[in-house]
Amino acid sequence: MTRPRILIVEDEADIRRFVRLALEREEMTVFEASTAAQARIDAGTRRPDLLIVDLGLPDYDGKTLIREVRTWSAAPTLVLSARDHEEEKVSALDAGADDYLVKPFGVPELLARVRAQLRRSSLLSAAGQASSTVRFGKVEVNLATHETWRDSEPVHLTPIEFRLLSALIRGRGKVLTHKQLLNEVWGSGYADRPHYLRIYMSHLRQKLEDDPIQPKHLMTELQVGYRIAGI
Amino acid sequence: MLKTLVRPLLWTTLCCIVTTIAAGFLLKIFDLSNVVMLFLINVVFISLTFGRTAGIWACILGVGCFDFFFVPPQFFFAVSDVQYIFTFLLMVIVALVTSELAVKLRREVRFAKASADRATALARVASDLSGAVTIDQIEAVCRETLAPLFTATAVLLTPDRSDQLGGAGDTAGLDLSAAQRAYDRPPRSGGLLTPDAASGVLYLPLAGPMATRGVLALRLQPPQTAIDRDDRVLLDACCASIALALERIHFADVAQETQIRVEGERLRNALLAAVSHDLRTPLTAIRGLADTLANPGGLSADEQMLMAGSIRSQSEELQRLIGNLLDAARLQGDGVFLRREWHALGEIVGIALERSRPAIGPREVRIDLSDDVPLIEIDSVLFDRVLENILNNAAKYTEPTATIFIRSVVADGDIEIRIEDNGTRFPLTETDVLFEPFTRGPHESTIHGVGLGLFLCRRIVEAHGGVLRAFPRRPNGACFEIRLPRGEPPQIEREGETAA
Predict the structure, then answer these.
(1) Bridge-based pairing state of the strands A225-228 and A176-177
(2) CATH top-level class for A133-228?
(3) Closest CA relative to residue A112, chosen from A124, A125, A99
C-alpha cells in the first residue's frame, strides 16, 4: 500500500511540527501549509489523501477553503478548532468537513481520527459500494431488507428510527451535524427541531445499546451532532 | 347661563307668593309693621341662597306685593303714608347688604373647598410617587393620578445616557425638540406658563434639587391658552414631587451600580489571586519537566515516559481551569446568553460521565433517571459543565471505593437531579460557602484547583432559572441537588408504529 499523503493547514509552527512528527512516525507523507492561499495550491499539486485544516487561519476562513476543495476532491477533511468556536465547527462540518478535533488535543486522539478517516475513504473507493449488511457490537443491520438484529434477536424499529440508523451508518466515520441528520431523515422543514433527533436517538439507544446512558456506538457530539462508532 | 338666572328668579317669585299669602293670614293677628318683617326675612333668605340678583328681585317683588296687597289703599300701587317709603328703602338696603355678604361667604367656602381638594390631590400624587421604584411606575402615576386633576393627558419624558429625552409612553404628537429645549434651559420658576403654540402641549421641566430630571408633557383637554393661578401652584408642587421621585430613583441606581462594581472588583481580585496560584502550579511543573526532558542524560526510558505523562496530565488540569475561567468570565459579563434547546437528560449525563471518567476512575456510578423527564430546556455546553464539575468534585472528595449516584425525578413540576456520593472526605458544614468563588474544602493543601467550579455551577443553574443546593448525606457523603423548572416541552408528532 502506498504511503498516505496528508496536508496540514495550520498557522502555528509548533502544532504543525508535532502533528507532522506523529504522522510521519505512522508512515505517512506530510505536507505543511501555513496559510489558506498556500493550502489551496498544495491541495491541487500534492493531491493529498487527507486534509487537516485549522479553522483560525490568518488569511481567510478555513470553511471557505474546505468548501472550495470539496468541489473537486473527495479527500476526507479533519478540522481543528478552539473550544469557543462551536458554531464555526458546525458550519465547517456542514461545508463538507468529515470530523473535528478540539484544541488542545492529544496525539493518540489525532492518530485515531486520521486512521479512521483514511480507512473510510479507502473502503469507499475500494469497494465502490458497501455491502448491505453492517455489524457494530452485537447489532447487525441489513440496509437492503430493513432488518435489524441484536444478539441475533430481531429488533423492531419504526420507519423513522430505521432511517436515522441508516443515515448514521451511511455517514460512518463522519460526524453528522443536527442539520444534516434532520434534513436526511425528516426533510428540510425540520431543520430547527433538533429535539426530534434527541428523542429518536434515545429510542435507538434503548433498543440497541447495552447501557443507553453510556453508549458505545451511537455517540453524541455535544452541540454538533452524532456519529456511529465501532463499525 | 340663562338657566342659572331663570331658575333662582322663579324660586324667588314662588317664595314671594308664599310670603304674601302667609302675610295675608298673619295680618289678621299682627300689626302691619310687624308683618313687613316677614318680607324682610324672605329677602335675607333669598339673598343668602340665590345671590344678589335674586335678592334684589325678591326686594322689588316683596315691596310690590306689600304695597299692592296690604298698604292702604289696598290693591293700588299708590302710597299714602310716607313712613312706608322708609320701610321700602330699608328693605332694599337689607337685601343688598345681605346678598353681598352671602356672595362673599359662598366664594370663600368655594375657595376653601378648592384648596382642600388641591391639598388632597397633591397628597395623593405624593403618596403614589413615594411607592414608585421604577421610572415606569412614575410614568403611571403621571398618567393615572396627575393627568385627571388637570383634565389632561400626561407623558413623562426622561433623558437617556446622552441626555436626550425619550418617552416611556406614547410620544406621538409631542414636539420632542420643544421638550428638549425646556429640559436643557428650564424657564425660571414663576414665569408665564403657556402651552406650545403649535402642539398645544405644556412642557414642564422637572427640576430636582440636584439637576433637571426630565420633562412632563401635559396636553390640556380641551386645549386652553393658559392655566389659572391656583392650578399653577398645584402643578408646580406636583412637578417638584415627580422630580424628587426621579432623583431618588437615579441615586438608587447609582448606589446599586456602585455596589455591583465593588462586588465585581472584589471578585476580580480574588480571581487574580487564585489564578496566579492555581495556574502557576501546573505551568511550573510543565516547564520544569520539559527542561528536564530536554537534557535527559541519566534518565531511564521509564522515567522519561513518566515525566511526559505528567506534562500531559498537568496540561489537562490547566485546560480544565481555563475552561472554568472562560465560562466564569462569560457568566460575569453583562447578560448571560444561553443557547437553550430541548435536550435528552440521559444524553447530557452520558457526556458528562464520559468526560469525567478519568477523574472518577474506579468509583462505581449508579444511574437512575426517571422516564418522566424526556426533555429539558438547557444550554447543553454550560449544563454539561455543571454536571462535570459536580462529578469531578465528587471524585475529588471521595475514596476510590466510594459510589456515586445520579438520580432524576419530577417533583412539584420541577425537574430534580441529584448527584450523591457516600464518601467521607467532603466538608459537611457551611455548604453555602462552597458556592462562593475560590472557596475550597479543608483539604486545600493536597487537592488543588480553583474553587471556581461550584460557584460557576450555581451561576449556570441560576441562569437557567433553577436552584443548586448542597447538603450532607446521611450517614456520610454529600448530595448536590439541581432543581430546574420543567417548562413546556415541545410536542413531538408520533409516527405510526408500523414495522420498518
Answers:
(1) antiparallel
(2) mainly alpha
(3) A99
pLDDT tens digits, one per residue of B381-406 = 889 889 988 998 888 888 888 899 99
Instruction: Please tell me which of the candidates B347, B380, B498 has its beta carbon nearest to residue A202.
Output: B347
Domain A5-127 sits in CATH at 3.40.50.2300
pLDDT for B442 equals: 47
Count CB-CB contacts under 10 A for residue A58.
10
Cross-chain residue pair A83–B341, CB shorter than 8 Å? no
Instruction: Count other C-beta atoms under 10 Å from residue B335's C-beta.
Output: 6
Nearest to A159 among B339, B374, B500 (CB): B500
Cβ partners under 8 Å of residue A44, min gap 6: none
Question: What is residue A180's predicted lDDT score, i.e. its pLDDT?
Answer: 92
Q: Which of A146, A156, A198 sits opposite B347 (nearest CB)?
A: A198
| Mean pLDDT, residues A14-35 taken together | 92
Interface of A with B (CB under 8 A): 83-84, 86, 104, 106, 146, 148, 156-162, 193-196, 198-199, 201-202, 205, 212-215, 220, 222-223
Q: Which CATH class is domain B131-253?
A: alpha beta
**Residue spans per domain, chain B:** 2-109, 131-253, 279-331, 336-485
Residue, of B149 and B252, whose pLDDT is higher: B252
CATH class of the structural domain B336-485: alpha beta
- Reported as a pLDDT band with limits 50, 70 and 90, residue B445 is very low
Cβ contacts below 8 Å, chain A against chain B, sum to 70
Of the residues A107, A145, A157, A198, the best mutation for testing chain B's interface (the one with the most B CB atoms within 10 Å of its CB) is: A198
| pLDDT tens digits for range B250-284 | 898 899 888 878 877 776 776 677 677 778 888 88
Chain A residue closest in CA terms to B493:
A196
Predicted confidence (pLDDT) per residue in A110-151, tens digit: 999 999 898 887 766 665 555 788 888 899 999 889 999 999
The DSSP bridge pattern shows strands A29-33 and A50-54 to be unpaired
What's the rounded Cα separation, in Å, for the pair A11 and A33? 8
Rounded to an integer, what distance in angstroms lies between the CA atom of residue B371 and that of residue B373?
Answer: 5
